[in-house]
Amino acid sequence: MRTVRNFTKGIIRENPVLVLVLGTCPTLATSTSVINALGMGAAATIVLVLSNIVISALRKVIPDKVRIPCYIVLIAGLVTAVQMLVKAYAPTLDESLGIYLPLIVVNCIILGRAEMFASKNKVFASAVDGFGMGTGFTLALFLMAAIREVFGNGTFCGIEIPVLAENKISILTMAPGGFMVFGLLIAVVNKIGRHKPQKTDFGCQGCPQAEVCSKIICSDEKEAEGVD
Amino acid sequence: MTKLIIILLSAVFINNYVLSKFLGICPFLGVSKKLNNAVGMSIAVIFVMLIATAATWPIQHYLLDPHDLGYLQTIVFILVIAALVQLVEIVLKRYIPSLHRSLGVYLPLITTNCAVLGVTILNNSENYTFIEAMVNSLGSGLGFLIAMVMFSGVRSAIEGNDIPESFRGLPVTLVAAAITSLSFMGFGGVIENLFA
Amino acid sequence: MKDILKPVIVLASICLVVTAMLAYVNSLTKPIIIKAEKEAAAAARTEVLHEAKDFGSLDTDGLPEGVTEAYRGSGGTGYVFIIETKGYGGTIKFICGIKSDGTLEAIKTLSHTETSGVGTKVVDNNSGYRDKFAGKNDVECRKTDVVTGATVSSNAFKKAVETAFKAYNIVREAKA
Lengths: 228, 196, 176
What we know:
The complex is a heterotrimer of chains A (about 230), B (about 200) and C (about 180). Chain A has nine helices and two strands, in the order αααααααββαα. Chain A is mainly alpha-helical and about 230 residues long. Chain A has a two-stranded antiparallel ribbon. In chain A, strand 1 and strand 2 (about 160) form a beta hairpin. The longest helix of chain A has about 30 residues, at about 125-155. The model of chain A is unreliable at about 195-205 and about 220-228 (pLDDT under 50). Chain B is mostly helical and about 200 residues long. Chain B contains nine helices and no strands. Chain B has helices spanning about 1-15, 25-30, 35-65, 75-95, 95-105, 105-110, 115-125, 130-160, 170-195. The longest helix of chain B is centred in the first third of the chain and has 30 residues, at about 35-65. Chain C has a single domain (about 50-175), classed as Sufe protein. Chain: A (Alpha-Beta Complex). With about 180 residues, chain C is of the alpha+beta class. Chain C is elongated. The chains are: A mainly alpha (about 230), B mainly alpha (about 200), C alpha+beta (about 180). At the A-B interface, helix 2, helix 4, helix 8 and helix 9 of A face helix 2, helix 4, helix 7 and helix 9 of B.
């Protein structure tokens, strides 16, 4: 039962992209087509599961002081390995993901899960958590990419859709469309989930830098309140 | 010389890291609420981008490439950047405490900022010479600064407006970012025609 | 002492193990990557000069700047050039096939970093811009219009075509 909950929380309640708002860079950049989104999602999920397993297994060995550098090295190693495998077996995917493939290293979701979950939980639970979060990430990417590709390019997975193909809204596949669709999706999730809009308007709780980041944002808010 | 100017201008306006390449979105959304934070963060980013490029370019060309170790790029670059940021922090704290007070908070945030790692990897995949790489990094950093400053202005205009409940917070910020990004696309035509 | 030594040892050994793992994965995937790249390059050559069954590599010394690779199609079918020009977002790499009658059979973008939605109106292989050059000779190609709003990308494209014809004239004369 706990395993199931561990898995599903990543998909809905704590969806890394739409609820926790982590990993925004790859979400915006690779959601121009469904194929890219699925490729990116799969690559990130593999890295996430493996890094969670390794970090959880080593959680008693890694000294607290150097844990972040250790995590970064482990994650960077896994990302590079995945990158080489993608290059060897799916060269077209490698080309279309380009720089965003090595940049999985700095995807906050992965470092965030290492810090928040894997460093405190057993190996199996961490693997499940990683898989759930990865699936949530992939689903959110898929949703965004489907909207952007179907309406922006009139295709789905490269297959042309009649009517829509003649009436493309090309702006959706460009940068502004990415921001717009992402904003609208989060608004929809807020509406459906009846989430109270978060106090800090940027959810970096899962990010290892939250401590520093929230210092800046909180000081902002305090000052703002003071002015009121 | 023209080539360097083109690299600089296209890094600032056309291939703007935040608004067209989607790199460094976290600080863009997180630290852009107030102008002074936006400027502080951007200056720290420009600074780290420049020293990171100055350090990683020789590593790539004199250490990794000759020994056929290109596959270690990601791991070496991220470690170098992390170490550099630490070093800069220590040096600033010791010798220029006033600067450390204003930029210090932003430095740790930059280590895992994808814009910095991104610029070092792109400099290499674009086959830039050292000078070109430095110019490109400067341009990317300036582009980040301009995007941050513009966006913090946009955000202060949103503040205090009556926004539908489900749009409050991040969604309206993202919609604003979409419009800011749209305005940047206009630069494309302008700069293209300057050199046409 | 232990407090200082342990983190260093752990971090160093993690680095070592990760590097060893990467070296292993690299040794596995490198031959496959090289083979895939070769196959892709061969496929691209056939695509721009479909009559040639085989290609012989040519020396690029003395060819115009920007030509990185040159090939002669078997049976006097024509030549294929790989050309790099500066676009908007960086280097654009083209492959261009010129038939022995002096007309361009096809040109294709191999890699680019042009702005999505602007420069891609030119360099995207499905944008239709490259079709404007197919079947034309040197003079006709020069007259091709640029795409509005994407002048730099269009000029980079046209320069690649021009360079290909220059290189074509040089290698043809060298042979004659």
